[in-house]
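User: tokens in, sequence out, please.
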């Protein structure tokens, strides 16, 4: 992106600056980190490689700014968030361009992510005012043995400095889902964006900068994980960490110490299909759930558990839809675009090769060019195959044939993951029974897993949210 107009403020030559204390800065390290375009596999952008000393200064500023921000009236906090949301939407084209080039997100989906993010910021502002504007009043005689002699008024207070670490696949949306709630609650934010997606995140932060938030309240530091990753997560100035990603979260939890952690570390979302399901509806949702953004979503359908008696029919319907998926560059709004990195593509290929060696049925020929992997449906997958349990984060979907509902529930619950799942049936009693038995944070009925609408609960086991989609329509139509 050319350094023209106001955007020149956040560029130093061809290197994007980091954001601290209300200013766009160059790192004293004199180093930068290259961001590789997944499609061309060539360097696309560069960001600053911040030093540990710069992280220390950011933390000091964030702590000081938070103290003042906590005293700012709720309505003023909300006013600034609404302003940032509007600016974010105005900049949707520029941010979407970064998403296309950094993470190979299809162009239309990139724009949608930015608009959705703006809506989420506004929603958090409204909900924050409503929730935080209420206190709780208790009287002492509500507990046995006490008289009505004491009164207690409780209210919510900020945690302090929040370290937000979003993932590459939604570097804007999952960043604002951390930033907006933290800010309306009176906290300050230190954002460490993923390398792939860092420039889109910096453009997003620029929108908050234009909105006029106090200096030091929002910071965005970029750099190598080996240099500042552990330093950030173990920093004594951090009061809470919100992380979305993979196995890195396990390491963070071991190193962070006794501070609140909010983590979402991936999923192996199971799709259980009963013999009475609307198979056309199932096939459409498997395509949507399994192959949207090339399967690079924590809420993607990642294993299909289908009753044997309808498996042949379902597989044929899904195969027909897979054949219609467009494959190519994100600029062309293709359905299947390159996965984020060569290492990701190699990992996916390893899962495919393992399945091939162990006898899975390939419904399409496996094809790969660089980071671009063609959509692949694997039938007759068995539990001894890696793809049955591991998260590919790519356009490869396994089908496991089951002989009973209990078998499907057992496979779902045997997984180490417990994010989301879905059930397809016209029988409401079976739908509720299976949903209750599945050890997943959210179970969608007659719809693919999804994060949203954004005000719905998004959680992992042992909590539970059951979302009924089209069940009543299906029961009436059927």
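Assistant: Sequence out:
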């Amino acid at each position: 992106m050319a350094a023209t107009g106001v955007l020149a403020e956040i560029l130093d030559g061809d290197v994007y600056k980091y954001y601290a204390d209300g200013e766009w800065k160059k790192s004293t390290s004199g180093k930068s980190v290259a961001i590789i375009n997944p499609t061309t596999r060539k360097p696309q952008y560069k960001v600053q490689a911040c030093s540990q000393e710069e992280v220390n200064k950011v933390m000091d500023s964030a702590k000081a700014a938070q103290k003042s921000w906590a005293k700012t009236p709720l309505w003023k906090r909300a006013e600034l968030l609404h302003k940032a949301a509007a600016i974010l939407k105005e900049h949707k084209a520029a941010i979407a361009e970064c998403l296309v080039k950094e993470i190979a997100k299809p162009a239309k989906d990139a724009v949608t992510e930015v608009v959705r993010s703006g809506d989420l910021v506004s929603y958090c502002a409204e909900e924050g005012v409503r929730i935080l504007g209420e206190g709780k009043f208790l009287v002492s005689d509500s507990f046995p043995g006490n008289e009505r002699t004491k009164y207690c008024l409780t209210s919510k207070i900020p945690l302090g400095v929040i370290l937000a670490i979003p993932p590459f696949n939604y570097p804007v949306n999952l960043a604002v889902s951390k930033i907006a709630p933290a800010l309306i609650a009176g906290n300050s934010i230190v954002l460490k964006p993923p390398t792939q997606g860092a420039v889109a995140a910096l453009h997003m932060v620029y929108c908050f900068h234009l909105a006029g938030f106090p200096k030091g309240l929002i910071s965005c530091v970029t750099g190598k994980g080996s240099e500042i990753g552990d330093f950030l997560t173990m920093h004594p100035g951090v009061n809470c960490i919100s992380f979305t990603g993979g196995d890195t979260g396990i390491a963070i939890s071991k190193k962070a110490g006794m501070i609140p952690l909010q983590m979402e570390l991936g999923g192996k979302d199971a799709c259980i299909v009963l013999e009475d399901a609307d198979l056309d509806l199932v096939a459409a949702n498997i395509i949507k759930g399994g192959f949207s953004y090339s399967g690079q979503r924590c809420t993607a359908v990642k294993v299909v558990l289908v009753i044997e008696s309808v498996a042949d029919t379902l597989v044929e319907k899904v195969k027909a839809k897979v054949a219609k998926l467009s494959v190519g560059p994100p600029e062309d709004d293709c359905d299947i675009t390159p996965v984020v990195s060569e290492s990701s593509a190699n990992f996916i290929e390893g899962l495919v090769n393992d399945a091939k060696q162990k006898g899975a049925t390939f419904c399409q020929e496996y094809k790969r060019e660089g980071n671009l992997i063609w959509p692949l449906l694997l039938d007759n997958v068995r539990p001894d195959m890696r793809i049955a349990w591991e998260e590919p984060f790519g356009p490869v979907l396994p089908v496991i044939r089951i002989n009973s509902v209990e078998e499907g529930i057992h496979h779902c619950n045997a997984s180490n993951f417990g994010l989301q799942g879905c059930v397809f049936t016209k029988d409401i009693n079976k739908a509720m029974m299976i949903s209750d038995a599945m050890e997943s944070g959210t179970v969608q009925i007659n719809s693919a897993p999804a994060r949203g609408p954004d005000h719905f609960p998004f959680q992992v086991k042992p909590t539970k949210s059951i979302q009924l989609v089209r069940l009543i329509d299906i029961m009436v139509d059927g």
